[in-house]
Amino acid sequence: METWYFIDSKDQSPAYNMALDEKLMDWHREGIIPPVVRFYGWNPPTLSVGYFQHIEKEINMEAVKGHGLGFVRRPTGGRGVLHDDELTYSVIVSESHNAMPDTVTEAYRVISQGLLEGFRNLNLQAEFSIPRSKEEKDRLKRPRSAVCFDAPSWYEMIVEGRKVAGSAQTRQKGVILQHGSIIRSVDVDKLFDLFLYKSDRARERMQKGFHKKAAAINELTEAPVSMNDIKQAFRKGFEKGLNIHLKEFALEAGQKEQVKALMEKKYDSEAWNFKW
């Protein structure tokens, strides 16, 4: 059984979270560390947007500020995510790893096996989302809204037909980064405040439909689940799903300085966050 590193970063700033994910990719590429599974949270709660999203066209920045949220652009694709009462995970592994398929969608399937096992550890019968019809596949190429949880993509998790985790992936210089959100609870009104719509009626229609398409863990369990229980469930889930052993890893002082420098240079900058 292969040993990977495990990091629980607790709640961190938006820029720190993205900078550490990127630096973990660098260190893994350089052979300094093995593959990594990382858990983290957000302080303050944050709206993250996908690498290709257009802020002026899709995001209500006044609402982001009004709700006291942080804001950051991810290095991965996908749509907007409100990171609040959730466990965020990231997986960093080489494309050349013998367990990783060549295609993005199949790599999602392999990595997301850890998510599947995590939900099962919470007694939730999760399954993979597999778009089958032409209409479903076309919808993935042209999403109707900028909200991540509006619809599941390939191999994302669904329970009772509703999306329960959203993930995004990038590949940079031979290394895969997949990260995503495991939602414990969600304030739907706050979430939909953060995006721009053609009309109030369009927002109302999308928000009403959201309840049928997405769900948080505490909507699906008989009793509320603690964040500690969720962390334990998904740590064991990744170990079983990826057939690995997770070993605790703490950053050295020099590595912390590298993360800080990248935060300041990139993820705290308007040039990065408001490009396009």
From TrEMBL:
Active site: C148 (acyl-thioester intermediate)
Leading EC class: transferase
Ligase listed as a keyword: yes
Keyword Transmembrane helix in record: no
GO MF annotations, alphabetized: ligase activity; lipoyl(octanoyl) transferase activity
Keyword field: Acyltransferase, Ligase, Transferase
Gene Ontology biological process: lipoate biosynthetic process; protein lipoylation
EC number of the protein: 2.3.1.181
Pathway(s) the chain acts in: Protein modification; protein lipoylation via endogenous pathway; protein N(6)-(lipoyl)lysine from octanoyl-[acyl-carrier-protein]
Catalytic activity field: octanoyl-[ACP] + L-lysyl-[protein] = N(6)-octanoyl-L-lysyl-[protein] + holo-[ACP] + H(+)
Matches recorded under CDD domains: LplA
Domain BPL/LPL catalytic: 31-246
Subunit structure and binding partners: Monomer.
Function summary: Catalyzes the transfer of endogenously produced octanoic acid from octanoyl-acyl-carrier-protein onto the lipoyl domain of GcvH, an intermediate carrier during protein lipoylation.
Family: Belongs to the octanoyltransferase LipM family.
Name of the protein described by the UniProt record: Octanoyltransferase LipM
Lineage: Bacteria, Bacillati, Bacillota, Bacilli, Bacillales
